[in-house]
Amino acid sequence: PALRARARRTLALTSAQFTERRMTAAGAPSPSEDFVPDRTINDAGHREELPGRTVRAEGAPATGDQTADRAYDWLGATFDFFETAFRRNSIDGAGLKMVSTVHYGDKYDNAFWNGEQMVYGDGDGTVFTDFTGPLDVTGHELTHGVTQYTANLEYYGQSGALNESMSDVFGSLIKQWHLAQTADRADWLIGQGLLAPGVDGVALRSMKEPGTAYDDPRLGKDPQPAHMDHYVDTHSDNGGVHINSGIPNHAFYLAATGIGGNAWEKAGRVWYDTLTGGSLATDVGFAGFAVATVQAATRLYGAEGVETKAVSKAWAGVGVPL
Ligand code: ASN
Ligand code: ZN
């Protein structure tokens, strides 16, 4: 634990972040203790049974299985991100144990949050590689947990697409934070490195240019719209949750790049406050969510703040009315 705390100190708040923290948390006692993750990595041994056999508990040495050890490291990075950026203590904000199962199923082509834990397939090796590979995939799945404990966005239609978008937004922010990339330098891809060699594509999704991540006979073409003019009305995929998430994803990209700097500091704070602030209905649509982000930005930066204006402009840019 001592080693771990020291290591995490190297990612301590910048003085600007610290000042902002003190201002936003004025009156509240300044937190004196670090939060500590409690991770468990299980191995399903290529069967579809959960939770599988525990191969690494918190603080235990590396297993030697790159997949299990990556899952452990990416859970740690995601935990550290939520702590550092938003002073959130784990998925539920109250130190929830983080459980993951790796080697789930036979050539299983997905990763998911099942309401209690994260689960990773190995990929079939021809279309997808190991789902523990990209940090933002872990960030995406873990953020489904954060959403479940906060706005609990219903997983259908627009609220479902917002649920998906929250996972992409914070998944991307975790990667940007880990790489110390500003909004203009980030690739804004989700799952870069997950497509196997030979697949015609760069990632699962692009927040910068939704609809351009892949175009391959085995996968089809990336179906994501970047604007309400191209909203996809469908009953499949829970009413297009992984499709229409391109619209709020692109709105976040526009807000973050419009503001500039580190995306997690301002745009990320606005989205985080919106997600966790308790004002959203579980079946909120894009328009209701957009209004809530402008309200959150107004509380943080004022109605005339450049940040608030960038948020409003971002929603206009994807055709969502305020
Ligand atoms: N990887 C997908 C996701 O988290 C799995 C799913 O659709 N349940 O959205
Ligand atoms: Zn998801």
From TrEMBL:
<comment type="function">
    <text>Extracellular zinc metalloprotease.</text>
</comment>
<dbReference type="GO" id="GO:0006508">
    <property type="term" value="P:proteolysis"/>
</dbReference>
<feature type="active site">
    <location>
        <position position="141"/>
    </location>
</feature>
<keyword id="KW-0378">Hydrolase</keyword>
<dbReference type="InterPro" id="IPR001570">
    <property type="entry name" value="Peptidase_M4_C_domain"/>
</dbReference>
<dbReference type="Pfam" id="PF01447">
    <property type="entry name" value="Peptidase_M4"/>
</dbReference>
<keyword id="KW-0645">Protease</keyword>
<feature type="domain" description="Peptidase M4">
    <location>
        <begin position="71"/>
        <end position="148"/>
    </location>
</feature>
<feature type="domain" description="Peptidase M4 C-terminal">
    <location>
        <begin position="151"/>
        <end position="320"/>
    </location>
</feature>
<keyword id="KW-0482">Metalloprotease</keyword>
<comment type="similarity">
    <text>Belongs to the peptidase M4 family.</text>
</comment>
<dbReference type="Pfam" id="PF02868">
    <property type="entry name" value="Peptidase_M4_C"/>
</dbReference>
<dbReference type="InterPro" id="IPR027268">
    <property type="entry name" value="Peptidase_M4/M1_CTD_sf"/>
</dbReference>
<dbReference type="GO" id="GO:0005576">
    <property type="term" value="C:extracellular region"/>
</dbReference>
<keyword id="KW-0479">Metal-binding</keyword>
<dbReference type="InterPro" id="IPR052759">
    <property type="entry name" value="Metalloprotease_M4"/>
</dbReference>
<keyword id="KW-0862">Zinc</keyword>
<dbReference type="GO" id="GO:0046872">
    <property type="term" value="F:metal ion binding"/>
</dbReference>
<feature type="active site" description="Proton donor">
    <location>
        <position position="242"/>
    </location>
</feature>
<protein>
    <recommendedName>
        <fullName>Neutral metalloproteinase</fullName>
        <ecNumber>3.4.24.-</ecNumber>
    </recommendedName>
</protein>
<keyword id="KW-0964">Secreted</keyword>
<feature type="compositionally biased region" description="Basic and acidic residues">
    <location>
        <begin position="36"/>
        <end position="51"/>
    </location>
</feature>
<dbReference type="InterPro" id="IPR013856">
    <property type="entry name" value="Peptidase_M4_domain"/>
</dbReference>
<dbReference type="GO" id="GO:0004222">
    <property type="term" value="F:metalloendopeptidase activity"/>
</dbReference>
<dbReference type="InterPro" id="IPR023612">
    <property type="entry name" value="Peptidase_M4"/>
</dbReference>
<feature type="region of interest" description="Disordered">
    <location>
        <begin position="22"/>
        <end position="64"/>
    </location>
</feature>
